[in-house]
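User: Please predict the structure of the protein below. I'd like the answer in structure-token form so I can feed it into my own downstream comparison script.

Assistant: Understood. Taking the following sequence of 484 residues as input:
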Amino acid sequence: MSDNKISRRKFLANAAALSSALAIPSLVMGTGSSCSGSTRQKRDARIIGANGRVDVAMIGIGNRGKDVVKEFHDTGLCNVIALCDVDMGAAHTQEVISMFPGVPQFRDFRNMFDKMADKIDAVMVATPDHSHFPICMEAMKLGIHVYVEKPLARTFYECELLMQAEQKYGVITQMGNQGHSEANYFQFKAWKDAGIIKDVTAVTAHMNNERRWHSWNPKMVSYPKAEPVPTDMDWDTWLSASHHHDYNRDYHNGQWRCWYDFGMGALGDWGAHILDTIHEFLHLGLPTEINPLYLKDHNRFFYPMSSTILFKFPERENMPAVDITWYDGLDNIPQVPEGYGVSEIDPNVPAVAGGKLKPAKLNPGKEIYSETLTFKGGSHGSTLSIIPDEKAREMEAKLPEVPESTSNHYANFLLACMGKEKTRSPFSVSGPLSQVFCLGVISQWMGEKLIFDRDTKQIVNNPLANQLLWGAVPREGWEEYYKL
């Protein structure tokens, strides 16, 4: 086994050390259902959809999952054969349930696989970040193709294991950074291949819009108090491999994204839609330094209200080193370059609100600085433009033709399951991108600069931060998901 692989023994040993090192109440292990003795039958990963449709089980069908289910259904390329959500009785899941009358319903993905694994060609996973890993790992072990919303997983080595599983089990995979199947992807590739984008040395990325966030006290000294679990909810399965938390409404329905234990904050939420093409086509890989330059209301429970994080990537493949500076927060607006213009300024934000000056907001996006050109862009599928306008006019005749996408991100996955296309964001591509965000999250939690060894995939200047690459010990009964 190479240095870049992680064994189950090493994972558990490092995670156990982390539990001791952190020594906070949240790391007391709870109980969970064991998958030992399962009757699930592994199927060979194979090309399917001979009848023009892929049989898909939808896992996570409320809130964001509802939108993804509809997108899959609208392709006309899949049959929805199972619905799974821990909150199956909640109002936010009812619309999808009503769309597919008679389709089997489950609250626990493990029960679904026990009963239907041999019938499922692929799964769509749109659950909270912390539960991506065990669902995806179990599906891949069963030879089932996987589409999962971003970010890929919550910890660095969960991403690592999912990339290894993709290779071992030979399944089709796709992460839900939808811009990878839209104009942004094809333009960036065409401009890079034509030498328009070259010698990039710096990138500014920003997400300063309001988001599903919170107004909790950053000086809190404990997690929220227990509340009654909703009657229709399977809270134990919602917790997944995470250590036990008593139910509280502030963990649920999007609020999970705010807590270190469950989500990846603004960086994990939006980074995959802003930095995806930069990361892939500039071959950035993993950074050597991650430095949290600014953290507003920093605490150990949930993400800062605002963050500025500097990622340093080394020289590679005849390309210069690149610094990426990430900004999030309503009051943490980066300085834009000369000639930027005002097209990205949100017109819906008044200059004065409630008698107090309110800062301008930039739409989520990026600025890319090379030795000769400056580009500005947005998120998801929005394309780049050259700034200032005079330079854009000068370059217009040199810009290559950009091909149109043959399929959106959902159709691309389904067509790949049929053997007709290749996925544009498989785990081999989206895994290292997600690992960049995992490193950024560790720097936010620690509040310290991290030095990362790209060869050994270790944080070398802080032992506690290095343990966070693994995360906490999985709850009893969930350890098997960390074994390939």
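That's the full token string. Confidence is low (pLDDT under 50) at residues 1-6, 19-39, 343-359.
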